[in-house]
Amino acid sequence: MSSSSLPHQSPPAAKPIGHLSALGRLLPYIRPVLPRLLLGTFAALLSALLSLATPMVMRLLVDGPLAAADAAAVWPVALLILALALGEAFFVFMRRFLVTLPSTQVEATMRSALYRKLQALPVAFHDRWQSGQLLSRAVQDLGMIRRFSAFGAPLLVVNAITLVVGIVILFVWSPLLASVFVVLSAPIVFVALRFERRYFLVSRAAQDQAGDLATTVEQSIHGIRVLKAFGRGRHALEGFTSQASTLRETEIDKARMDGHLWMWLTIVPYISYAVCLFIGVGLAADGQLSVGTLAAFFAIAMVLNWPIESIGFLFAFLIDASNASRRFHEIIDSENTIVDPAEPVSIAQPRGSLVFEDVHFRYQDAQPRERDLVDGATLALEPGETMALIGITGSGKTTLTALPTRLYDVTGGRVLLDGVDVRDLSLTELRTHVAMAFEDATLFSASVRDNVLMGAPDASEAALERALAIAQAGFARDLPKGLDTEIGEEGLSLSGGQRQRLALARAVAAAPAVLVLDDPLSALDVETEALVEEALRSVLETTTALIVAHRPSTVQLADRVALMRDGRIDDVGTHSELLARNEHYRFVITSLEETERDRQSIETVTGSMAAIDLDDLNETSEEVAR
Ligand SMILES: Nc1ncnc2c1ncn2[C@@H]1O[C@H](COP(=O)(O)OP(=O)(O)OP(=O)(O)O)[C@@H](O)[C@H]1O
């Protein structure tokens, strides 16, 4: 899927909800730490109010001891100003101390909630969302929300209150000067509104672009072997650089808008001060205003300078945080369609009968005119039966095998386990009864033991040994720390065949009633595959198995074979029955045999090449050269 077609990547055309509503949605996460955050905000408010008190004391100083030339009276006032400054510093410290802890807790709680949701959301959700978009929400957006709750929000509240209190003081001292100051500062509101409209879109675009960039990094690291093998490093770098410069331009756009707003927020108040100074000096000269009041008026106006100037970045901060909240809630609000039923049925002793009953399935992004990918598949597996599933590529085999464990839900028909619709079982119980191994064997950054026992953490050591033996994964014991060896991210330090064998051991260790294997032996060489198949027979005697087969030898492992064609089960029977009666089956088997022959010849050639002595090769080439 092309990245540009993903719905979450482009900024929304219109604001779905306002900034305050978007931030209000964070309340459930903030509520537990709200008292402490409010206390921090209160400390910040006290420090701001103390900063306003200083000019008031100065006014007393100028109109009192200074006007009366009373030097002795200056000292107590100076000490009072010092005390106010110390008080202000103390409350600044208290604000930081009080808000840091709760804001990190908000971030951690939200991150856990996001991770829990991502785990619960169905595979169909993950098909549509790029990993980088999820990653950037989990890291960048939540960091933004933490900083806003610790710093932005308290400062916004405090600065707003400081501004109001400061303006009220100005009005008390000189209604005329205060009115001039307020009226001349009014254009700031229009500038801010214009800024809000434009900044909202650019801020959202930057956050989405950061997500795209994270996706690119993730993909290139994930696919580093392919990039290196095909010499595509430069191409990947060019793509990354182009994305990075797009993000840079967007960030510059943001900074430019911020800078413009900041400029107006600086210019406009200073024009107001200049006019006020002009009028104020006139008033003082006429004796309508004391010199102390005029000095204090400007001292207050200067204190208000910061709350006014900070509106710019705090407003930008608020928009960034509200966008971060929207992006977070886009995940949290995603509907999880694959959930436990209201009243789950339980199967105490599963026998392992698996039935597909007129099953239909189509992916979410399928076009309306396309037929269903699984288009009325009906298939019954008896308890303990091993059924191979074959068909030409794209016939829907992998998709069908994803339905019993509810990786996807059927869009029509039913999948029954021991006669119970799989949607009526709790997901935990269902996935205990049905285990899967995929062709693409994913392992985690954990020990071999933890990887294998993922589906059965309480399994005994004997069960673990048995699973490893069946999957021919004895090599794991020879790793540096045996089964406690940590395997690298996604098991990339192991060979493809080794990873597949561990993934198969994981499915076997889960001791399920039904085993669904989607071509899990494809990376094994012929001999190892034969050994695994032989060992699997012992498991498969008691376990129902549905095995997607791409090799004739896997087909022979099965009791019966189901032939899938155009999303339906075309025929079911033993290998020889189908060979005798079904032409399409013969065609599929022939093509599997041809593919297998090609594979074996490649293996033989690779094996012989490995056996050639390099000295012989050198001698031969020298002879050829001669
Ligand atoms: N997550 C997905 N979203 C949309 N379409 C998908 C998705 N996964 C598979 N498809 C499409 O479904 C079709 C059938 O895929 P599926 O993997 O089930 O076939 P298959 O028979 O297992 O093929 P193969 O033998 O090559 O593995 C393909 O055309 C594929 O493009």
UniProtKB/TrEMBL annotation:
Main localisation: membrane
This protein's GO CC annotations: plasma membrane
Gene Ontology MF, one: ATP hydrolysis activity
One Pfam family it belongs to: ABC_membrane
Subcellular location: Cell membrane
Signal peptide: none
ABC transmembrane type-1 domain span: 38-320
Residue stretches spanning the membrane: 33-53, 73-93, 150-170, 176-195, 261-285, 291-319
Protein's UniProt keywords contain Hydrolase: no
The keyword Transmembrane helix is annotated on this UniProt entry: yes
Keywords for this protein: ATP-binding, Cell membrane, Membrane, Nucleotide-binding, Transmembrane, Transmembrane helix, Transport
UniProt topology in membrane: Multi-pass membrane protein
Residue span(s) of domain ABC transporter: 354-591
The family this protein is said to belong to: Belongs to the ABC transporter superfamily. Lipid exporter (TC 3.A.1.106) family.
Protein name: ABC transporter
Organism (species): Agrococcus baldri
Upper classification of the organism: Bacteria, Bacillati, Actinomycetota, Actinomycetes, Micrococcales
